[in-house]
């Protein structure tokens, strides 16, 4: 039993670390989930954390970030990350009415309730799907091809993204072949290049006179911060009191339903759930608060389900979240691998049982509820003001730049850095210009390493 | 643009990069600091940790961890050196006129305001606590009489 106790302690410790770290990162506006969660999780995997620890870290990180991302969204009017963008309209309306604290509380309460519901629901759906797992792994190369095309079409770029997949896959194949001639086999550099692509593209664009007109500014960013209003006693406001009964029901229903729709993009599901609920609420104030609680609840449930279901049922990253921010849970060579030829996987799917996924999943949500939730409820205003006043964007970019250099050199030396730059620039520009987002790019990477060998075999080449 | 609102002379090279505003010169220095500090940490750790773990791969992973500590150190130095390019002001929290404008905007973008008196007791109580009940109610009642 000592072994089990040790395992639980390590998992809880890493969960706490993930929660504290990403509660803070959530406060910094504009920190995209994939760019921040994927590389740091990768680090945790590669440093040898036990499977349950890796999983708890990721879950606590993702759930916490989608709580504290409500702080800049509600108080500063700047979206905290990609999934906070659909919340901005309602949050801004409440902020302009002088009630940003209400927006914040509704979002947080929705998040915490939704996260607790999503874990068991996702495990349930995964168990239902698991019997089909063997067929799915056997057909993995083809499923990835279909999934890549599907996720490309559901991205903002639509058909443009589908077409762009072809050259993107060939760039990856070409680079793999080239680094192969120098006996360098890379995987993490591709991940990191895709994840950090938007930043690489922005930095290189900033050097171009052609892009100066788009990027140049002549004034500081004007931000107003809302006054502080605290109207509850104690440290831990009860989420069931923050939401009224109809809102609790709506959050629970939306969370359960969006736990099943794991192949769709989380942003799309967030917008959709908000629209469905918004259409049913007659009064404007009640509509604003209901839509905010449901939408932020869905940012949690989609992330949880889209990581858990593919992880438990298939071991293959078959969802936008699994292919993006959760990618290191599936594939982090040499530790976690997805075999190119056979579709045989060796990752958390094989290393943890269903019961363990359920247990550590709930533990991660509980950790986030104990760390991020009361933190954001009580210190939202001072935290938002501190970040806006003290942490310059230059410092954030400098930190990520250092991170990329260290990990790139560590995996592949100068060739690794070249791969990150190439994938980053190409992917980042394709994202900005035609909407070929990072999720599609991750699928493109899998299509290159999994589907292409099968296609070539079929063609007899 | 009025002269008083102009940023200080050293910061006329502002640009919006990756979602927020930076000074180009200060960003360039930050990138150099970020690179030098993190690589220095990594390189020194690579030397120091040689043979410390049970395999070369673990030595290298530990060195990478020190490299990450280096990134954070670099970021800390940059945040000491360079101030954020944001003006943060206290929200005046809106006059009634401004709030009514918000209600009009909500009506245009998201549909009807609705009758607050039809809402469940708990929601009405919440609106009163926040101090928005009268605003919404009066807007709705005025609109109703205006329609007639």
Concise account of the structure shown:
Chain B: The chain crosses the membrane at residues 27-49, 61-82. The complex is a heterodimer of chains A (461) and B (148). With 461 residues, chain A is mainly α.
Structure description:
Chain B: The chain crosses the membrane at residues 27-49, 61-82. The complex is a heterodimer of chains A (461) and B (148). In chain A, 76% of the residues lie in helices and 2% in strands. Chain A has one domain (2-212, 234-458). Chain A is an all-alpha fold. With 148 residues, chain B is mainly α. Chain B folds into 2 domains: 11-81, no CATH class; 96-140, no CATH class. Chain B has a two-stranded antiparallel ribbon. In chain B, strand 1 (14-17) and strand 2 (20-23) form a beta hairpin. The longest helix of chain B has 26 residues, at 56-81. The chains are: A mainly alpha (461), B mainly alpha (148). Chains A and B meet through helix 5, helix 10, strand 1, helix 15 and helix 19 of A and strand 1, strand 2, helix 1, helix 2 and strand 3 of B. Strand 1 of chain A pairs parallel with strand 3 (86-90) of chain B.
Which key features would you list for this structure?
heterodimer; A: 461 residues; mainly alpha; two-stranded antiparallel ribbon; 21 helices; 3 strands; 76% helix; 2% strand; globular; B: 148 residues; 2 domains; two-stranded antiparallel sheet; 5 helices; elongated; disordered N terminus
